[in-house]
Design brief:
It is a single chain. The chain has 379 residues and is α+β, with helices and mostly antiparallel strands. It has a single domain, classed as Beta-lactamase (3-Layer(aba) Sandwich), CATH 3.40.710.10. It has twelve helices and 15 strands. A nine-stranded antiparallel sheet has the order 3-2-1-14-13-12-11-10-9, sandwiched between helices. The protein has a three-stranded antiparallel sheet with strand order 4-8-5. The longest helix is centred in the first third of the chain and has 43 residues.
């Protein structure tokens, strides 16, 4: 009996020792990966590089890495709770809002602009459908690259009514349905349709449909909501001389009103990566709507940017297909992408724009981080 007990104790000791060793090995590997990822972040920030970045990487919804680097202001490092303007990553949020209203029977993808809006613009074809607006098959010209900014800069604290933004849309480049041509005007019009269909602001609808039920407490729609601090300071080369300037004081109501549904969501990296999980991997919208969003209706033939769905870009990172979007606006440059196979979401937020090396560094950052993450998962 004693021999049996001694054997059992010995076996238990071996089991616990092996379990402990395995656990330590796993912890050490996690530390090595974390250090490697942080080294990549650190290599991309600094003088003549990226001013600051905030990164969130999730696997199957769990945030495995939250990484920061660089500064918000000279004496203030970037911190994980800082909100950034996410630029055109706003578009998949708006697209999801539209699809949610489609799921609820309030809208149809075949509804036309004229079914919902009474516009008097000669440059907007009222037969364009919601489906065509979502995937940029409208031929409608962009509204942002005009004297609109002079109007905003003359009175930064006065919002410009979104219906008046329609007046800044130029002559169409094509008939509806001819080809994919990316245009911020498409999402301006989608925002106006959301408000007409619901009788609420876009910000109210987003909060009601997504942010409150999903417990995403750090995402805001700046055109309709006050964005609480801390907000990461935006930097921009305003005059093209190569020097970045702090433009946080410029971000009054006028800028927010212009960016609207093309670019005016603000978020932390953590909440935005969780949003990607809910949107592409979860049930924020119906499965049918999700599949429609992640179907490419135009193939680019580019090695990285290969297609576009409904408010969603199809990109290749680290050799894997990912859905999401990039974003750029005054003072910010961003990435949000999701891989369905491995259930990996990544968000990279950067607080600068119009810098010569910014776009390349932002892409390299995401590519290098995901290469390490996918190698870690696959091995």
């Amino acid at each position: 009996m004693k021999k049996i007990l001694i054997s059992l104790v010995f076996i238990s000791f071996l089991f616990l020792s092996c379990s402990s060793d395995d656990s330590k090995e796993q912890i050490n590997e996690e530390e090595l990966i974390t250090n490697k990822l942080q080294e990549i972040v650190d290599s991309k920030v600094g003088t003549n590089k990226l001013v600051g970045v905030s990164i969130s990487i999730r696997i199957d919804g769990e945030e495995r890495w939250s990484l920061q680097g660089g500064i918000s202001q000279t004496d203030q490092p970037v911190e994980s709770d800082m909100k950034f303007g996410i630029g055109s990553i706003t578009k998949p949020v708006v697209a999801a809002t539209i699809m949610k209203l489609v799921d609820e029977g309030i809208l149809s993808l075949e509804d036309s602009i004229g079914d919902w809006l009474d516009l008097n613009s000669p440059n907007v074809n009222n037969t364009v459908t919601i489906f065509q607006l979502l995937n940029h098959f409208t031929g409608i010209d962009g509204y942002m690259y005009t004297e609109l900014w002079e109007r905003a800069e003359a009175n930064l604290e006065t919002p410009i009514p979104q219906i008046e933004l329609v007046d800044y849309i130029g002559s169409p480049s094509n008939e509806p349905g001819v080809t994919h041509e990316y245009s911020n005007s498409n999402y301006l019009l989608l925002g106006l349709i959301i408000e007409e269909a619901t009788g609420k602001t876009v910000g109210e609808v987003m909060r009601e449909k997504f942010w409150t039920p999903l417990n995403l407490t750090n995402i805001y729609f700046g055109a309709n909501e006050v964005i609480p601090e801390p907000i990461c300071t935006p930097w921009r080369d305003n005059n093209g001389d190569g020097a970045l300037e702090d433009i946080k004081d410029d971000f009054g109501a006028a800028f927010h009103s212009i960016f609207y549904c093309a670019a005016d969501v603000f978020s932390t990296a953590s909440d935005l990566s969780m949003w990607a999980e809910h949107l592409y991997g979860g049930n924020a919208i119906s499965e049918d709507s999700k599949q429609k969003m992640m179907t490419s209706y135009f193939d680019y033939g580019h090695p990285i940017y290969i297609g576009y769905g409904l408010g969603a870009r199809k990109n290749i990172y680290a050799g894997k297909v990912m859905w999401g979007h990039t974003g750029g606006m005054r003072g910010y440059g961003t990435h949000m992408f999701y891989n369905l196979e491995k259930r990996v979401s990544i968000v990279s937020l950067n607080n600068q724009s119009r810098s010569e090396n910014g776009p390349v560094l932002r892409h390299e950052l995401v590519e290098e981080l995901l290469t390490v993450v996918f190698n870690y998962i696959d091995n």
